[in-house]
């Protein structure tokens, strides 16, 4: 058992590790960090209850294993074989048996399981998870020993330091006695935030007293290039280093060769987002954190106006790649009878590309259409509910009456006008947006708007995105023109070169002929001289 524990601990010695980050550490970002050289990468935290109500699906379209929330159909954990030996699954829990059940679910697909014991956010504390566990040693012992004894993969936990060094050391010794493979230590208390200095000295003291690997975390303020990672490790005396924000800002910091241009990093990240159907909101959030102050540039402002993954892909010159991948995925879904798991990946160009279905339910006519409300596709003067209200008032119709269905924080709204119920089959994160979606269905069903209404932005609705897209097209045209000019120049140079070679060859032949003629004349004169001399 001791040998096995030692082997498991080796996985965490001398490593560079990417920390769990909400909405960032999904499959595309994790794979990108693997490309750039991370030794291990954590998933974002998943609460045990969410995992336990999920279903697992082998996604042959994407080549992934998906864990899907049964309550709303969303994929919250997607993984693939390529990251199998690198990915650490982090859970939020306050119960040993629930934690073990989750561990058993992910055991075949991950390199280790980590328990979040450091999150200071309110939702974790109220649920008795995260940093709330730091003052409950009995619960910590119960959770960790149950996991260590019940799983075949390494078990770790990530903590924050306590208010005093003796308390912190006592807690860390208790955690080590539970048999964990390693311990991650964020060098701040639960009250401290990133603006506060990291207590590297406390991590150093922890590393001195423990025999298991200590993973130092919290040093992003000190890490601005790859060499700083090693320096942070030396300053803390830790076995390994875990970085969060420094990796989020530009994860090519993981490369020993140095940074890549940010545009290159974003483009490579977006390729993975497109390939693995990453949720639009997560993709946009991650790119936004990469851009930071560059959000104030024309391209950054255009990015902020984007409402779908397709629009983001256009800004980074990936529209053709997006269309190719989407067509491939749609074909795969069709053959395997999969449904689209996430909205706002791309919008059809018009209502002609979706079906408006009429049916009857409990004696009431119901009209359904799949469309989401994308705010950037509307001017303030033509919002769906505004147009619907105007029509109802002018025609003196009965309504509108809105109703809602809430499924795990997602909203589905219906609007009833003159006894007919109109609803979108796609859910929204916002109650207001779901009502706007239902209003769009009414407007299209009644033929009150153009076929493209709600599907594409009207003129001037997103000026920065329009300007940048136009500039990208212009640059592509210029680039193609430059390439054509270069090709023509190269061709002309080759032709000129051939002409020069022919001229040189011709001149060489002429010169050779002249030299031969001169040699012949000289030879004749010499012969004449010899004959004259002989005659004398």
From TrEMBL:
Q: Which CDD domains match?
A: DSRM_DUS2L, DUS_like_FMN
Task: Please list where the region (Disordered) is annotated.
Answer: 494-536
Q: Which ranges carry the DUS-like FMN-binding domain?
A: 18-254
Give the compositionally biased regions (Basic and acidic residues): 494-504
Q: Where is the composition biased (Polar residues)?
A: 507-536
The entry lists its GO molecular-function terms as: flavin adenine dinucleotide binding; tRNA binding; tRNA dihydrouridine synthase activity
| Keywords (A to Z) from UniProt | Flavoprotein, FMN, Oxidoreductase, tRNA processing
Cofactor(s) listed in the protein's UniProt record: FMN
Q: Name one GO cellular component term.
A: cytoplasm
Q: Does the entry feature the keyword Flavoprotein, yes or no?
A: yes
PANTHER family per record: TRNA-DIHYDROURIDINE(20) SYNTHASE [NAD(P)+]-LIKE
Protein name (record)? DUS-like FMN-binding domain-containing protein
What is the originating organism of this protein? Scylla paramamosain (Mud crab)
């Amino acid at each position: 058992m001791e040998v096995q524990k030692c082997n498991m601990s080796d996985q965490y010695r001398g490593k560079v590790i990417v920390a769990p980050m909400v909405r960032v550490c999904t499959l595309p970002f994790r794979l990108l960090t693997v490309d750039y050289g991370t030794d291990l990468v954590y998933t974002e935290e998943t609460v045990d209850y969410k995992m336990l109500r999920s279903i697992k699906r082998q996604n042959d379209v994407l080549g992934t294993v998906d864990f899907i929330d049964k309550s709303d159909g969303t994929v919250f954990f997607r993984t693939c074989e390529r990251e199998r030996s690198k990915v650490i699954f982090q859970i939020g829990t306050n119960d040993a048996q629930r934690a073990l059940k989750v561990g058993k679910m992910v055991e075949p697909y991950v390199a280790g399981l980590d328990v979040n014991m450091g999150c200071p956010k309110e939702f974790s504390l109220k649920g008795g998870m995260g940093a709330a566990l730091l003052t409950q040693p009995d619960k910590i012992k119960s959770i960790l020993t149950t996991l260590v004894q019940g799983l075949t993969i390494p078990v770790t936990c990530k903590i924050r330091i306590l208010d005093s060094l003796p308390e912190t050391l006592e807690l860390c010794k208790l955690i080590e006695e539970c048999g964990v493979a390693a311990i991650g230590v964020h060098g701040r208390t639960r009250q401290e935030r990133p603006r506060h200095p990291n207590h590297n000295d406390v991590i150093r003291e922890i590393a001195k007293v423990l025999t298991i690997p200590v993973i130092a975390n919290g040093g992003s303020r000190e890490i601005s290039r790859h060499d700083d990672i090693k320096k942070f490790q030396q300053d803390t005396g830790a076995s390994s280093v875990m970085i969060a924000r420094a990796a989020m800002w530009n994860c090519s910091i993981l490369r020993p060769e140095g940074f890549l241009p940010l545009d290159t990093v974003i483009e490579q990240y977006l390729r993975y987002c497109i390939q693995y159907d990453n949720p639009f909101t997560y993709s946009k959030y991650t790119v936004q954190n990469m851009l930071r102050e560059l959000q104030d540039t024309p391209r950054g402002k255009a990015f902020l106006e984007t409402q779908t993954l397709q629009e983001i892909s256009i800004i980074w010159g990936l529209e053709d790649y997006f269309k190719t991948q989407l067509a491939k995925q749609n074909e795969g879904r069709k053959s395997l009878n999969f449904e689209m798991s996430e909205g706002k990946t791309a919008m059809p160009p018009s209502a002609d590309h979706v079906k408006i279905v009429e049916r009857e339910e409990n004696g009431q006519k119901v009209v359904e259409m799949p469309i989401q409300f994308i705010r950037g596709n509307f001017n303030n003067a033509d919002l769906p509910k505004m147009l619907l209200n105007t029509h109802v008032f002018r025609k003196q119709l009965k309504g509108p009456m809105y109703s809602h269905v809430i499924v795990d924080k997602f909203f589905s709204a219906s609007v009833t006008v003159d006894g007919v119920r109109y609803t979108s089959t796609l859910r929204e994160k916002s109650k207001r947006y779901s009502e706007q979606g239902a209003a769009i269905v009414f407007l299209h069903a009644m033929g009150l708007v153009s076929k493209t209404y709600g599907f594409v932005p009207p003129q001037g609705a997103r000026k920065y995105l329009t300007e940048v897209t136009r500039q990208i097209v212009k640059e592509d045209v210029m680039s193609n023109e430059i390439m054509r000019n270069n090709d023509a120049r190269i061709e002309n140079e080759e032709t000129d070169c051939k002409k020069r070679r022919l001229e040189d060859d011709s001149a060489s032949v002429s010169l050779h002929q002249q030299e031969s003629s001169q040699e012949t004349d000289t030879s004749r004169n010499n012969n004449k001289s010899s004959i004259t001399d002989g005659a004398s």
